[in-house]
Design a protein that fits this description.
Blueprint (H helix, E strand, L loop, with lengths): L2 E7 L2 H12 L3 E6 L8 E7 L1
Antiparallel strand pairs: 1-3, 2-3
Length: 48
Amino acid sequence: MNLITFKTRNVHKAMLMLIFALSNGFNIIAAEEREEVAANRIWLRKLL
């Protein structure tokens, strides 16, 4: 099984990456909360 997995932070540039990823078949698989909301991480994965 071939997968691509990456994480992005909840900041302006990263949110653009999130929109790109979701529109290209990636799924959100997890979220990591941090004290500062902008530091939250969003994990994405796509099956190739």
